[in-house]
Design a protein that fits this description.
Structural class: mainly alpha
CATH architecture of the largest domain: Up-down Bundle
Strand order of the largest sheet: 1-2
Number of helices: 9
Number of domains: 2
Largest sheet: 2 strands, antiparallel
Strand content: under 5%
Number of strands: 2
Helix content: 55-70%
Order of helices and strands: HHEEHHHHHHH
CATH class of the largest domain: Mainly Alpha
Shape: globular
């Protein structure tokens, strides 16, 4: 959900956030299932136009609203952005957030023991994800080029979680471009406005 909110913030679009607990004890609220038959978040409404799936939502936001472009117009830069989004979606999210952050940080917060085997098994995969993201990153301040793209918006919520885990320090040690990017991106107004 934060990815879509970041897109709205970066485009300076006014929006109303309706929070839904898809992990509620009684299951996904029936009203939400009308908006998203698979019971996930986010969903998006613009007038009488309804969408679900983050990729569709953020690309629609980029095309439908004025403001900064979140997708490069250059075909190679756009392909590289899409490649990074694919890596973040297919490989990095589960590994960095669920297998490391949730097990290490959320478990401790909730008074549970971390699943050390799960974390240990995730570390090599996390290293590959981070190494590839670092290799593909530009040195222009953002992941792709000199302005915010969808790659930044997909990466930021993942890194906001992952960087809280103690494992992040050693895994990020050789990822200089990612470290520089995160130090800058973490302080953006859009990040502070989407923390909750």
């Amino acid at each position: 959900m934060r990815i879509a909110r970041l897109a709205l913030e970066e485009k300076q679009v006014n929006y109303r956030l309706v929070e839904v607990d898809v992990f509620a004890e009684n299951g996904v609220p029936q009203e939400h299932l009308k908006r998203h038959p698979f019971g996930r978040i986010p969903t998006f409404e613009h007038g009488d136009f309804h969408l679900y799936e983050t990729g569709a939502i953020v690309r629609y936001i980029d095309d439908a609203f004025p403001g900064c472009r979140l997708q490069p117009t250059d075909p190679k830069a756009r392909a590289k952005m899409n490649q990074m989004v694919g890596i973040l979606d297919a490989y990095a999210y589960r590994t960095l957030v669920w297998d490391i952050y949730v097990e290490r940080v959320v478990s401790a917060r909730e008074g549970r023991l971390a699943n050390e085997q799960k974390i240990a098994a995730a570390l090599p995969h996390a290293a590959v994800c981070l190494s590839e993201l670092d290799r593909l990153s530009d040195e222009a301040g953002f992941l792709i080029g000199g302005s915010v793209t969808l790659a930044d918006l997909y990466a930021a919520p993942i890194f906001a979680c992952f960087m809280q885990a103690p494992e992040a320090a050693s895994l990020m040690d050789s990822c200089e471009k990612l470290i520089y990017w995160w130090q800058r991106f973490a302080t953006r107004d859009s990040m502070s406005r989407t923390e909750s």
